[in-house]
Write a structure and sequence with these properties.
By secondary structure, this protein is an alpha+beta fold. The protein has twelve helices and 16 strands.
Length: 477
Amino acid sequence: MDREKYQRPDDNPVKATADEPVSTFSVDVDTGSWSNVRKLLEAGKRPPRDAVRTEEFINSFRYGHPAPASRKVPFAFHTELAPAPWDARRQLLMIGIKGYELPRDALPPMNLVFLVDTSGSMYSPDKLPLLKKAFAQLVPQLRARDRVAIVAYAGSAGEVLAPTPGDRHAAILAALEKLEAGGSTNGGAGIQLAYALAKQSFIRNGANRVILATDGDFNVGTVDQAALETLVADQRASGIALTTLGFGRGNYNDALAEKLANIGNGNHAYIDSLSQARKVLVEQMGGTLHTIANDVKIQVKFNPAQVSEYRLIGYENRVLANQDFANDKVDAGDIGVGHEVTALYEITPVGSGAEQLPARRYASSKPQVPASVAGEIAELRLRYKLPGQDTSKLLSRPVLASDARKSPGESLRWAAAIAGFADQLRGGERMPGWSWDKVIATAQGARGTDPNGERAQAVQLMRLAQGLVDSAASTDE
């Protein structure tokens, strides 16, 4: 029987700009929801509604956002504004962020502690055996200046490999191969030992990170989620990040894995195959392991003279209070080398007739804005900290009504189709009139060159999901 655990707030509501003109959220580069849902669908199972996090679906793909011209600012950002595919009266605003790239040899030294769940629940082929093969793909990328340690936990925690130079590939692979599943799970003790080893080999100005690989089924020792969160939060100030990698089905604790990564200034991915492991740990190693911007926050100030309503698509558990945008004590998401972050807002222009909220009975007079900003849809603002710094920097840019395209470009159409896919899996409530067939047709037309076939695979996944949903609907009738 499945004991998987998911936790996701309800979809973001539509906001009236006249009442709430400002929207603030933290960036998110996690992708675990996409690969977990993919595995469920390929197994012929419709995913639980709460397993679907739209922003993680969207951010599982690259959109070709332009990179910064220099490393003085760690990332570049841009916007695209165009009609929404599900209702041409509305608009989609895409915000794209791209971190600077570095070749592997130029990456800072790494201090990595693999924290491996070897409990009895990790016995199946899609858990510990896949985990060992996944980490084995990372090992050849390690260099002499890197340090690697391995901690295993099952009932009690133990050191499997003391901090070792990264170029001792044979020793690291041999330690991985010795890992065997058995026993119950004491995740809290494992995390404590992993952080202790990471501190022992701490590299100043390097990438210091604990990589927790588990199905998340903590059942011995520190089992209370609040206690685990406190444990990880206390270690965050040490400069050691926590990345979580989820494995397996049946007892996968998605909620805990994602939450710990967020608190630990890291990222969360779900590994459902060797190809996904290679993508996360080899192809995107720089972004996964090397942080170039901390506490990245996005704030959008909408112009009530231009925008009647808006809705942030996804990022429900990343929404911040507006006053926390400039509060440097408030934690937010991080961006790694080469990372892309993509966010979408659905916008209802004033006078479009597409409003979803009832008109206010006691509405005030038409908003008055200075002529100098009358042509702006919104002002986009970003705050970030450079690694090791406590004071944030501010970037801002207006989004002009004149920037609107007559039709969305390929990247925006793909992002919209992926958002539509997520919405259909969550019940199809937020994009009325956009059917499965229309979502799939939009995706099919926005596949582009698709060198790795990832978009073609996503279209096939949509068709598979449509069949499962339609079959379930016919059974219920």
